[in-house]
Design a protein that fits this description.
This protein is 76% helix and 0% strand. The protein is built from 5 helices and no strands. The N and C termini lie close together (11 Å). The relative contact order is 0.04.
């Protein structure tokens, strides 16, 4: 997935940005209408809305299950509360609320990563190579490779990697 982004993002930028700039388009949906037909634009927009609804639904249900596990409150109630609070928060705060929430989330994640790194280094007496040695000697039951192997270039579709 990440490798695909690294390869195709620059390629898409080189190909699509000049096309969109020349055609003075603001969205892919405008291009669909210009290139094909208005019904194709509507179909593309409908597909985007459906995938967004399913993505948000999956995220909400997953979070609700987590809250149910931690708090013991019924998952359906957690789901309704999160959906109402999220909708109200976004509607009242607008895009500024969403952006500042993303900033806060980024800071919390970075601080969490730093805390985990410090805890690991303290546990291993500040010897990062010891952590790497253990990870490289431990073999994954799923892939059959050490935890430090990032990718498998084998042409075997049964190998996850």
């Amino acid at each position: 997935m990440v490798l695909g982004v690294i390869v195709f993002l620059p390629l898409a930028a080189v190909i699509w940005v000049p096309v969109w700039a020349r055609l003075r388009l603001l969205s892919v949906y405008e291009y669909l209408e210009l290139r094909f037909h208005g019904s194709i634009r509507a179909f593309g927009a409908l597909l985007f809305i459906l995938t967004s609804v399913f993505w948000i639904g999956t995220a909400l249900v997953t979070a609700a299950l987590g809250f149910e596990t931690v708090t013991g409150v019924d998952g359906r109630l957690c789901l309704v509360i999160m959906a109402v609070l999220g909708t109200a928060y976004t509607a009242l705060g607008g895009i500024r609320a969403v952006i500042w929430t993303d900033v806060a989330q980024f800071i919390v994640f970075i601080l969490g990563y730093v805390a985990i790194l410090v805890a690991l280094l303290r546990e291993f007496q500040w010897q990062p190579m010891e952590i790497y040695r253990i990870a490289s000697e431990t073999v994954s039951e799923t892939t059959g490779y050490s935890h430090t192997k990032l990718m498998s270039f084998e042409l075997d579709l049964t190998v996850k990697g």
